[in-house]
Amino acid sequence: MTSSHRNEKKSKVLLVLVGVVLFCLVTTRLLRIYPGENYGGDLTTLLQAARSVAKSSSATRNEAVLTNERGALARRPAVEELISKLRDASQSASGGEYSLIDLPGLERERWIRDNPCKCRTELKTMYKRRRWTTDMEEDDGLWDAVLEEYSKLHRICLRRIGRPNLRRFFENKKTIKGCKFAIADYSTGGGLGNKILTITNTILYAIVTQRVVLVPTSTLLPELMCEPFVGSSWLLDSNEFPIPPWNSTIQFRPIWKYHHEVYEELDRTLGASAENFKKYPPVSTIYASTMEESQYQPDSRFFCDVEQENFKTVPWLYFTGCLYSIPKLFAIPGFRVTLEELFPSRRVLTRVLRSVMLPNDFVWDRIVAADAKHLKNADRRVGLQIRYRENTVEFNEKNSLVNQRILKCGSENNFLPALADRNATLQSHEEERAADPSKFELKVFVASLFSGFVDFANESYVSHPKMNGEEVTLVQLSHERTQLYGLDVDRQLLVEVFMLSFSDNLVVTPRSTFGGLAQAYGNLVPWFVEFRNDEPGAIERAPCQRAQTVDVCYQEADQVYSCPYDPSVDQKRIYDVVPYIQKCLGIDALDGLQLITMDATGEMEYPLTSDSTVDLPE
Question: Does residue 411 contact residue 439 with C-beta atoms inside 8 Å?
Fold first, then answer.
């Protein structure tokens, strides 16, 4: 036998031995991970399980390679640091039980089967079909990598405690290294837009600060949305867990402290010197902190570095409110670079909503059905969101004015056709339609508590020929005339939010979080219809104004830093320190702040106008 033949035989034997060793290792891992499974010597079942683990490991390696390639193109050290912190927290939380860290292929498949979410794979297609707007979505894999690591921390902490034991864990003021919590609630009485935007604030904050986010069942959100964190659940039973404001019992008041008590403790510890913080970083003695019941947002000191360092040592935080506040997370110096690297175009709300706030299959099927029936074959889709805040009183006063302004806005900005002949009849219009059935089809979706615009447009718009002969169809799914609440209402409203978000062009009502939610999901820069009356003797107001960004306005936001331990920013205007955080337009909410999103070239979406930089009166 030649030397080459002997070497070849040795190589084959070595490969076989390596294969046997790997099979044994995988088998041992499976039996350790699934001690409760009865494989009963069924070699076929075990082999299938082994293949599943091998496939999962291969996919993980491929993703790691892909992530490394992306990282080689543009390294983002702050994001890498965030991922490292999430991994460190997971390692600590596991307590050395490394089986808690992994989510084997079979278990992942089982979780996905038990928590289906068709929207996760189908939503992007709905946006890509639009012909008149570009869906510029950041998709470099970094946010997905952060979510994967965060999901790992989420499931480790809840498995380590045991979901049935969560209340007892809290009552006894227990802690686990690596596990901190953020309860994402909202103020009762707010609509669906307020609810989703408020809870989204807390979710992003929890991810950046490595906290396990929990959403109370009383918000109804867990019954609307898919479970977002693989292998875990964000659901918190409101009837079981002692959630402020103490609806059922007062025995937990000694545990829950208000945020201002955290600041007061910090002030007693540091005195008036920020240097004391650098020398002796304080450790809070507070176990659980909640926002003041009268507030709709965190107060100004929450958005400061030293205060955030102190909150790190508080195991439980409770958030409520009804205002969108993500822009001011970018104002926190310690968060800013990480958020800038994660969301270079500042389309943070669109990215978070499309990955974490996805409608469950029951709601998604209704969305798909409504779209197929009303919008699917349109050449162009226009969304109109019309909100009369004072209900019937304001509707009766402004309906005619708003309707005229919407038509003028659409005509002047070329997304609604101009009328060719206002004296033409419905009969002549139908004859024209029959003569050329292949004409451009425009569908207008209206979301409003009132049917005023549809009634008006059908009478004076749809029933008459258009300048270019477009075929116009109006769609409105509901008009209750007053705001209602409840799970069925929220489901219907979420359908309408997504129908609006599928638009090529969107017109919204100023200060409406419902319209804002649609613009964020749709990644759209909308037009604000002008609701203000013309001033006597003044120039007639423009019918609408284009927004300056995809981002929603953070209404009623404090615009000045209040950071007593950080003189570099204290009492400075936020938009002077962070240039891409600017005042909202006057037509929308001049007392607010918002992120200015960037286009594909890295430039601001729309140049800032003087309307967005007018100082508020002292």
Answer: no
Task: Encode pLDDT of 395-428 as tens digits.
Answer: 999 999 999 999 999 999 999 987 655 554 444 4
pTM above 0.70, yes or no: yes
DSSP structure string for 185-247: ---TT--HHHHHHHHHHHHHHHHHTT-EEEEEGGG-GGGTB---STT---EE-TTTS--TTTS
Calculate the CA dihedral of residues 579, 580, 583, 584 and round it to 10 degrees.
Answer: 170
Whether the Cβ atoms of residue 513 and residue 533 lie closer than 8 Å to each other = no
Closest by alpha carbon to 510, among 465, 543, 470?
A: 543
Q: What 8-state DSSP symbol labels residue 280? A: S
| DSSP state, residue 102 | -
Residues 50, 105: Cα–Cα separation, whole Å: 9
C-beta atoms surrounding 500 within 10 Å: 28
Model pLDDT for residues 25-39, shown as the tens digit of each residue:
444 443 333 333 333
Rounded CA-CA distance 385/505 in Å is 11
**Residues pairing with 443 in the sheet:** 381, 473
Closest CA to 277 of 247, 317, 305: 305
Measured between its terminal Cα atoms, the distance across the chain in Å is: 97
Could you give the CA distance from residue 493 to residue 513 in angstroms, rounded to a whole number? 12
In DSSP terms, which residues pair with 445 in a beta bridge?
A: 383, 475
